[in-house]
Design brief:
It is built from 14 helices and 15 strands. By secondary structure, it is α/β, with parallel strands linked by helices. Helix 6 links the parallel strand 5 and strand 6. Helix 1 crosses helix 10 and helix 11 runs antiparallel to helix 14.
């Protein structure tokens, strides 16, 4: 099983918290679509006989593409790769792009899953984040999308300055009222070089507080699990049979090809990433060159990656796999590093699988970094 991720590097406007690669100028959109189709073709040899089971349009805001452009790119994948009979084909979309006509149009296309960037149902939060949609658009698009799509995910952001626990509960309850089978939820993080960082530094808005985010996370887990959602990855909750196949493949270490500016690829041995510059990307593809850098992963890199992704998921970190794939030195190291977290009831071992406890879940990324091996091969 393998997946194809297509990065569409355009947005109508810049959200204050975002540090992903995109441009707000659509001038080169048509040229970019042709270049992405060409890269899809250029990289067909990388998958050999692997079957493509997921195609994911991310960004940026892929919903700025026309339905014709989306179908053109899906056709390029089908022409150059072996695609499974019923692949999961996801489009990330913003509510302001999902008019009734557009939803109906997309429902007739090969897209069979929508990931909708709601972030909040409250006007003041959307304004603080500089989102392009308003609260009414968020609700209207979900009402209509659920009539045409069964497989829908929505994004919510917690830990927003000024958002109390009650308001956060209302956000979750509103999301649940639409019968959505998948929710992705992230803490508001302040990345360098973002507008949010500047607003905080100049005192225009308060900085997010870790303890507030931790409380919101606990409310989120408790509420969603009480509503039959499975907390299958740190930031992702799905009802049975509605986990994101695209994201699950990434967490389970399956191969994927990332197409488009700034997109990352992984084949189990190496990782590569395309240049984060639209003009350089276009020029390289036109010259039949892949504008990417490649890093061959060391044993320590692969171990660290497995520990990070494993701890974030319900599948955990298999101690048997650590020994088989990385050797007894890595297993001894992991056991030694994990002991303090086991003693503090932040990690547990069951059936030889290492996982965070409910108490340790929110701290997963920090715990994982303490289990990383930095110099085993030096």
């Amino acid at each position: 099983m393998s997946g194809i991720y297509i990065h569409i590097p355009f947005c109508k406007q810049a959200c204050h918290y975002c540090d992903f690669h995109f441009s707000t100028s659509m001038k080169k959109k048509e040229e970019m679509v042709l270049a992405i189709a060409k890269e899809i073709e250029m990289r067909a040899g990388e998958f050999d006989s692997a079957i493509v089971e997921t195609i994911y349009f991310g960004g940026g805001t892929p919903s700025v593409l026309t339905s014709e452009e989306i179908e053109f790119l899906i056709a390029a994948v089908y022409s150059n790769y072996k695609v499974s009979e019923n692949p999961e084909i996801t489009l990330e979309a913003n509510p302001d792009d999902l008019s009734s006509e557009r939803i109906i149009e997309l429902s007739k296309s090969p897209i069979n899953r929508l990931s909708i960037g709601i972030q909040s149902f409250f006007e003041e939060d959307l304004q603080l984040m500089n989102r392009a949609h308003n609260s009414a658009e968020a609700k209207k698009c979900l009402e209509e999308a659920t009539q045409y799509f069964d497989n829908i995910s929505l994004d919510l952001i917690y830990g927003i300055p000024g958002m109390g626990n009650e308001k956060w509960r209302r956000n979750i309850e509103t999301a649940l009222s639409f019968g959505i089978p998948h929710i992705s939820s992230y803490a508001l993080t302040v990345e360098p070089k973002t507008a949010l960082n500047k607003l905080i530094q100049t005192g225009k808005i308060a900085a997010p507080k870790d303890e507030v985010a931790q409380e919101h996370f606990a409310i989120l887990v408790e509420t969603l699990e009480a509503n039959d959602f499975i907390h299958y990855e740190l930031s992702n909750f799905g009802k049975a049979n509605y986990f994101s196949k695209n994201n699950s493949a990434y967490w389970l270490g399956k191969k994927y090809i990332g197409i488009g500016p700034s997109a990352h690829s992984y084949n189990g041995i190496s990782r590569s990433w395309n240049v984060s510059n639209n003009s350089i990307y276009l020029k390289s593809i036109q010259e039949n060159k892949l504008p990417n850098e490649i890093e061959i992963l060391s044993t320590a890199d692969r171990y660290n990656e497995y520990v990070m992704t494993g701890l974030r998921t319900i599948w955990g970190v298999s101690l048997d796999r650590i020994e088989t794939e990385f050797g007894v030195d890595y297993l001894d190291y992991l056991n030694k590093q994990a002991q303090k977290f086991l003693d503090d009831n932040l990690l547990s071992i069951e059936n030889n699988i290492l996982k965070p406890t409910p108490k340790g879940k929110f701290l997963t990324d920090g715990i994982a970094s303490d289990l990383f091996y930095l110099n085993l091969e030096e």
